[in-house]
Amino acid sequence: MSPAYRGFVGHFFLALSLFLLLLPGYAYEILSDDSLNSLPRASEDYDIHTGSLLSPILRTRVPGTEGHEAVLEHFANFFRTTLPKWNIELQNSTSTTPISKGKEVPFVNFIASRDPPGAPVGDVGRLTLVAHYDSKLTPTGFIGAIDSAAPCAIIMHAMRTIDAALDAKWTAMRTEGLDPSLEDEHGIQILFLDGEEAFDHWTDTDSLYGARSLAASWSSEFYPAMSTYKTPLSSIELFTTHWAYQSLAAAEERLRSLGRMKSASDQHWFPDSKKNSHDVIPLGGISDDHLPFLARGVEILHLIDFTPFKGFPPVWHTIEDDGEHLDMATVEDWGLVITAFAAEWMELEGYLDFEQQTKSQTESQSKSRRDEELEFEAEAIRLNKKTEL
Ligand SMILES: [Zn+2]
């Protein structure tokens, strides 16, 4: 992100579909207290040394390097073993950088999505959660824990937490004689974008390499003629950001009042939540991955901490932005809030059954351990092939 601003525990943004609110009978469905109380925290999986979600991302991952490739494989492996029903895509591009001496550097955006079963491509609007996964070239050894390893892990945790409930909801619809592909036109999508950081000094061309490429590619890729949405970009066309902001604020407040949050509560994360949208002073100018999408008309809620509120943590863009400097209570709490918001958006009240989920995850994990070596090798080959294209 632009060095002119200071920011929150990493930076990530949410893009939410406007269309979905306009569906007849569609309603954002808030979770019950019981459901909020049952949401798991990802404590162990966020362990910075051994956690299955976060620790593999806490390494240097500059585009075109071995660390970068390993993190990409970690994402692919996570979705393949833990969320096998998700569709994975890689979007590749190359660009020279101010320090590459004319050489093309590869950038790989990681895209994973899940739609109602049988829904035609082009008819599904997707709640889209986005973080960048590349790390900054300098200072040497920079890890980028807040920027943005932790947000990637937070999103992975949220998607893992709601996945079984998506199945349960779509199965229940079938049982009731409804066809999820026709009745439920909303899906969910995550983007882990590459090349957000500048290689030299932040400029319009030395930054946001992956986001610029993906926004351009998605705006020129067309769905079949009769589709609800014209392009992948318009399928993340959104509703009002202030509404999403207020929904997140409500989730934070309810989780705090239920005693589920561990971080300090002296300062609420969403200070404008009680204001009407026209009373909120827009604070523009933060350069981040949302810009190429915003420029093409996608409605964005950008979650970032900046002055006059808390401001960026002092470790931002320094060698100290590492696992040891993460405030784990805050990271875990964000995991809860994002999970609650995604579950409410996807209308999963009544379908979150974590006892059942733990059982089936344990089964699939023991299977995946058996197959791990072979599958991992195959994935590495597949990723390499795609990257070469
Ligand atoms: Zn940064």
Automatic annotation (TrEMBL):
Domain Peptidase M28 span(s) in chain numbering: 126-341
E.C. number: 3.4.-.-
Highest taxon listed in the record's lineage: Eukaryota
Keyword Zinc-finger among record annotations: no
InterPro entries in alphabetical order: M28_QC, Peptidase_M28, QC/QCL
One annotated GO molecular function: peptidase activity
GO biological process: one example: proteolysis
This protein's UniProt keywords: Acyltransferase, Hydrolase, Metal-binding, Protease, Signal, Transferase, Zinc
Signal sequence extent: 1-27
Family as reported in the entry's similarity comment: Belongs to the peptidase M28 family.
Identification of the protein by name: Peptide hydrolase
Species assigned in the record: Penicillium cosmopolitanum
